Amino acid sequence: MAIPPESFFLSTGAGGTLQQRIRQMVAEGILSGRFRPGDRLPSSRALAAHLGISRITVTLAYTELVASDYLTARGRSGYYVSGNAPVPPDFHSRAASGPQYDYARLTGERFSRTARVARPEDWSRFAYPFIYGQADATLFDHQNWRLCALSALGRRDFEALTSDYYERDDPMLIEYILRHILPRRGIDARAGEVLVTMGAQNALWLAGQVLLAPDRVAVMENPGYPGLRPILAQLGCRVAAVDVDQDGLPPDALPHDADVVFTTASHQSPTNATLPLDRRLDLLRLAGERDFVVVEDDYEFEMSFLKPVSPSLKSLDTEGRVVHIGSFSKSLFPGLRLGYMVAPESFIREARALRAQVLRHPPGHIQRTAAYFLSLGHYDALVNRMRAAFKRRRTVMDEAIRANGLDIAGQGGFGGSSFWMRAPESVDTARLAEVLRGQGVLIEPGGAFFAPDRPDRRHYRLAYSSIAVSRIPEGIALIARALQDDEFSARVP
Amino acid sequence: MAIPPESFFLSTGAGGTLQQRIRQMVAEGILSGRFRPGDRLPSSRALAAHLGISRITVTLAYTELVASDYLTARGRSGYYVSGNAPVPPDFHSRAASGPQYDYARLTGERFSRTARVARPEDWSRFAYPFIYGQADATLFDHQNWRLCALSALGRRDFEALTSDYYERDDPMLIEYILRHILPRRGIDARAGEVLVTMGAQNALWLAGQVLLAPDRVAVMENPGYPGLRPILAQLGCRVAAVDVDQDGLPPDALPHDADVVFTTASHQSPTNATLPLDRRLDLLRLAGERDFVVVEDDYEFEMSFLKPVSPSLKSLDTEGRVVHIGSFSKSLFPGLRLGYMVAPESFIREARALRAQVLRHPPGHIQRTAAYFLSLGHYDALVNRMRAAFKRRRTVMDEAIRANGLDIAGQGGFGGSSFWMRAPESVDTARLAEVLRGQGVLIEPGGAFFAPDRPDRRHYRLAYSSIAVSRIPEGIALIARALQDDEFSARVP
After folding, report:
1. pLDDT tens digits for B457-480?
2. Are B195 and B178 in contact (CB under 8 A)?
3. Helix axes of A472-484 and A429-437: crossing angle, nearest 10 degrees
4. What ipTM, to 2 d.p.?
5. Where is the HTH gntR-type domain positioned along the sequence (chains A, B) (predicted)?
């Protein structure tokens, strides 16, 4: 790589001759690891012009550096960092700096101190990744995604790609969401009622900020989506965790002072329960009577391969009390960071203004690429392929789980991409996950899904969205075997 | 487009025979504009399977809809929405819905009530767009950006593209920033000291959230970057606006209780002043003595084409009190939404955790594409092209401004992409912008840059980052002519 002349400054305080200072800067760059063997140095002409000094000074400094083996000269093509140059030390010296200001003291580490679902970054290198919510490279339609990205990068789409949007999102994506995604959820909306977000997490965050304040009461499902907990904690509102049962959130268990109810009605996260129609109607009736708002996280609706998906809560909402959240993270891939929210315009206007403050807008290129992929039918084809694969995997997994005598706590009648599991009472699944990881098996301990005042260590989640069908039986057998090991079985009385 | 079977639901409450209800759903879809002429309906087999009813019922409903001209049958290829189908009304009926819940009452519209710099979305269709911060399609390197995007979409990079990062950013981008961007600003940092953000706006927002609270004091430059004002307002902290002079922010004018000082030291926004070295050293000395933190928005440093860029504040910071913010929005394009921040690890850790809460991470594909574009040298080439073009435009503009007797309030000695202008005392530049817009000239009225308690209507900004050099003289002449019109000149005593 070529080192730009702008990397060099003649600092005012330093001593020594100009020539010495240039040598020092080069040597420091090499010793700090910034300049690496093979990197080309600026020409003596360019560096001299940049520093406003004579060219001969630079040439002399370079010659000296060649002599000391920091640089090599390659005839007319210039000077390069030598392959024999001193190797930078592994540790990082900060000779010039005193002790650094400690921000932890200032910030109280209020953002970094939250529990997260543990997920190794190199999960795909494990033999049995029962991991949730990651993309499966074997199912994704690379070729067409590339073609769509290329179309979105075309000169014709330059504006959509580069514009600093504020008031609106990519009209092509909005159009597709309005005409083809929302109708599948029974929702009839206008453009002003939809906002594109950086995935469902971003939508939940925006909804929380717009709707809540320290004196208000938010309801979370228990167990529930862990990504919501730090959002509510940060807002300082009161959080009421309501236990879900086999049918999801029971409306009659809601506290009377609820202001905002967060629910994963269609596919409860993590138990996979689907809220029955009568509970949906009850929930919406109560929302009107007690004046609260419902935030519906409608994740994973595309993965209903066993039963037709039920209409969303939003489709039953005549008063505009439901904020509906959808995402392409599961159906396309999580790294895309693309989702949307649907609500009355008076809500969307606020969420849009807040989004602009925080990040302006989701990148135009991402929006346009997704719009092409969706509207050319590749999305439907991909979802169908995923459904078929997930259905096969689920069947194999179901058999393996039963054959190995493991206990399913929730699996959902619609399909989905995971089983919610229950280990014997005394098992700590965080520890179980640790042991299994050493054997190439990744499971998700369930602790993070539970309210801190009702800790639970025995549940865990097994997803089949990223594991090959052929690996499933052996993986499940390994889990069963681990549970029979002394460490875990001994604790059962 | 094909209408998916999932768009159809048999709602439980509705009356009528199954056949009638299907006809109703199709007609409603057409009348509401969701289904459009030429759209293909699901096959009778697919729809029947989806709804769990007999196929003949669907076929009979379709036949009836053909008779009433809602649909047309095209032999074996199926049923389509007819070109003669009733046209949906322009207004949007919500027969089924009552009045919608009013979120404005709940939210107090606290996010949407903030002033912004006015900028028409269709600016590129104006003949004389002296508009700031937009991409210039004539300078951008389309072809190589496309190639880089394609590389980033390759199978080898699938993980970088799709992963749900949390703890880290794209290592390839971080590596480039550490080795090639930051050294040009005199900064030597480690990977844990850098966070990739959704542009500079997002970085400012994160810094504000991490560093400030309602009882703390934030300093803003006056005039200063308008995007910062709503961030600070939202935090509820006390905002002290400090007037800048020809040399930027005067450290001796800082309030004694300042906690965080936001500055655009290298290129003051909008006056273009560069903070001299002695003021930089004073500012950092005061930060240590009075225990405050400095947030340095180092935007546009690449556009120093008249003088070598001065090292950043961060490069002089021995105590870790400077949070340094950079962005690719100006040098690549604003729709990219990509920037970074550099600070001690104890700060970056908090900012990263907050970022995860709000949006998880900037999309992997964007990060990787930028990493390729940067590391293959296309970025340097683009910046050089932009510098050359901006230098030409600036010269022409400078001459035109002087020839027309307009008054420059700040232009900066380094280069940049705009002039900060001053109209005669009684002129309201918001009104001037309105008048000029009618003549195809876009200028930016300066009001939004000033603290609300020190309103100023006479300044305006003229950028040359998106206007062709050939348009400049005529555009400037039009501005001068407008200022001589009765409406504006009459007010001067």
Report:
1. 999 999 999 999 999 999 999 999
2. no
3. 120
4. 0.85
5. 16-84
CB-neighbour burial class of residue A4 (10 A; exposed 0-12, middle 13-18, buried 19+): middle
What CATH number was assigned to the domain covering residues B123-133+381-489?
3.90.1150.10
B340 — pLDDT class (breaks 50, 70, 90):
very high
Identify the burial level of A130 via C-beta atoms within 10 angstroms of its C-beta, where 0-12 means exposed, 13-18 middle and 19 or more buried.
Answer: buried
Tell me which DSSP letter residue B415 carries. Answer: B
Peptide bond into B223 cis (omega under 30): yes
CB contact residues (below 8 A), chain B span 112-151, against chain A: 112, 114, 116, 119, 121, 124, 133-135, 137, 140, 142, 145-146, 149-150
Contact A357 B201 (CB under 8 A): yes
Q: How distant, in Å, are the alpha carbons of A294, A366, B170, B331, B357 from that of A342?
A: 12, 20, 31, 34, 21
Q: Is there a contact between B110 and B350 (Cβ–Cβ < 8 Å)?
A: no
pLDDT at B342 over 90: yes
**Is A119 or A435 the better-scoring residue by pLDDT?**
A435
pLDDT per residue over A231-242, tens digit each?
Answer: 999 999 999 999
Q: Which residues of chain B have a CB within 8 Å of the CB of A352?
A: 112
Q: Which two structure tokens, joined as six digits, stand for B111?
A: 């996010």
The rounded distance, in Å, linking the Cα atoms of A409 and A397 is 14
**DSSP character string of B312-371:** PGGGG-SSS-EEEEEESTTTT-GGG--EEEE--HHHHHHHHHHHHHHHSSS-HHHHHHHH
d(CA A198, CA B193): 24
**Do the Cβ atoms of A379 and A236 come closer than 8 Å?**
no
The model's pLDDT over A6-21, given as tens digits with 9 standing for 90+, comes to: 888 776 655 678 888 8
Would you say residue B94 has pLDDT above 50?
Answer: no
Structure token digits, residue B82: 């007819």
| CA-based nearest distance B395→chain A, Å | 21
Contact B110, B454 (CB under 8 A): no
CB pairs under 8 A between A and B: 324
Residue A228's identity, in one-letter code, is L
- For the segment B80-109, the average pLDDT, to the nearest whole number, is 71
Residue type, A91: F
Percent with pLDDT over 90 in chain A: 52
In sequence order, the β-bridge partners of residue B79 are B73
Domain boundaries for CATH 1.10.10.10 within chain A = 5-81
> Residues spanned by CATH 3.40.640.10 within chain B?
142-376
Nearest-CA distance A17 → chain B (Å): 20
What kind of fold does domain A142-376 have according to CATH? Aspartate Aminotransferase; domain 2 (3.40.640)
* Residue A12: per-residue pLDDT: 60
CATH code for residues B5-81:
1.10.10.10
* Portions of chain B given CATH number 3.90.1150.10: 123-133+381-489
B234 contacts on A by Cβ (under 8 Å): 357
Angle between helices A55-67 and A44-51 (to 10 degrees): 120
pLDDT at A388 over 70: yes
| pLDDT reading at B95 higher than 60 | no
In the predicted model, is pLDDT for residue A91 greater than 60?
A: no
pLDDT tens-place string over residues B179-222 = 888 988 889 899 999 999 999 999 999 999 999 999 999 999 99
pLDDT, position A386? 92
- Identify the three-state secondary structure at position A169: coil
Coil, strand, or helix at residue A124?
A: helix
How far is the CA of B313 from the CAs of A22, A301, B306, B317, B403, in angstroms? 22, 50, 20, 7, 37
| β-strand partners of A445 | A460
pLDDT for the residue B96: 45
Q: Assess contact for B156 and B172: CB atoms under 8 A.
A: no
